[in-house]
Design goal:
CATH topology: Rossmann fold
CATH architecture: 3-Layer(aba) Sandwich
CATH class: Alpha Beta
Strand order of the largest sheet: 2-5-1-6-7
Helix content: 25-40%
Low-confidence stretches: none
Radius of gyration: 17 Å
Shape: globular
Structural class: alpha/beta
Order of helices and strands: HEHEHHEEEEHHE
Strand content: 15-25%
CATH superfamily: P-loop containing nucleotide triphosphate hydrolases
Number of helices: 6
Mean pLDDT: 96
Number of domains: 1
Distance between the termini: 14 Å
Length: 199
C-alpha cells in the first residue's frame, strides 16, 4: 500500500498524523479504515465529519441545506482535539464519531489509547487552502489526496442518496444543491497533497 510506504517514522514524543483528503464520495473513509487495519492496534481513525455542527445549529443559522460545506464545521474544535491526540500525553482520549445512519455526532464514541502511534484522519476539507482550514496543515505528518474523476464522484453521490431511500429526481436535486458544489470546491481549492492516489 502506497500510504504505508510513505509513512514517516514515529517520533518518541508524539503521534504521527496521516490526513486523507478529497471530494465527497472519493473513498476517504474506506482508505482510512484500510490504513488503520494494516497498522493494527497501533492506529486509530479520527474523522473530520464528527465536527459537523449539529442540525439544530445549522437550522438556526440558515445553513441546514449546506451541511457538509466548509463553513458548517467546527474547525477550532477539530484542531483542538487533533492537537490533543497528536501530543499523546493522556492515557485515553475519548473522541466523537459521526453516525451517518443518524446524521449526527456521537460524543465520546471511541477511545484512543496511549499505545496508538498513528492517527489516520480524513475529510473533504483537510487541505482546503483558505482560513481557518489551512492552519491544520502543520499538524499533518503525511497528507494523502484522492484524485477521483468527477463522473465517478457524481455517480457515488447519487447512489448514496438512493441508498437513503430517495428517488432519482430527489437524489439528483440534493446532489446538485450541495454535494457536487462541495466536490468542485474540494478539487479546485485544496492544496497539493504529499501523496496523490488515483481513484
Amino acid at each position: 500500500m502506497a500510504v504505508l510506504a510513505a509513512l514517516p517514522a514515529v517520533e518518541p514524543t508524539r503521534r504521527r498524523v496521516v490526513a486523507i483528503a478529497g471530494p465527497p464520495a472519493a473513498g476517504k473513509s474506506t482508505l482510512a479504515a484500510a490504513v488503520a487495519a494494516a497498522l493494527g492496534e497501533t492506529a486509530a481513525v479520527f474523522g473530520m465529519d464528527a465536527f459537523h455542527y449539529d442540525d439544530a445549529v445549522l437550522v438556526e443559522r440558515g445553513d441546514r441545506d449546506r451541511k457538509g460545506a466548509p463553513h458548517t464545521f467546527d474547525v477550532d474544535g477539530y484542531r483542538a482535539m487533533l492537537e490533543r491526540l497528536r501530543s499523546n500525553v493522556d492515557s485515553d482520549v475519548a473522541i466523537p464519531v459521526f453516525d451517518r445512519s443518524m446524521e449526527l455526532t456521537r460524543g465520546s464514541a471511541s477511545i484512543v489509547g496511549a499505545s496508538v502511534e498513528t492517527i489516520v484522519t480524513e475529510g473533504n476539507w483537510l487541505l482546503l487552502d483558505r482560513d481557518p482550514w489551512r492552519s491544520l496543515r502543520s499538524l499533518f505528518d503525511l497528507t494523502v489526496g484522492l484524485d477521483v474523476a468527477d463522473s465517478i464522484v457524481e455517480a457515488r453521490i447519487l447512489e448514496r442518496w438512493r441508498s437513503h431511500g430517495f428517488d432519482d429526481e430527489t437524489a439528483r436535486m440534493r446532489a446538485e444543491a450541495n454535494d457536487l458544489p462541495n466536490a468542485r470546491t474540494a478539487r479546485v481549492e485544496s492544496a497539493e497533497a504529499m501523496l496523490v492516489l488515483a481513484g
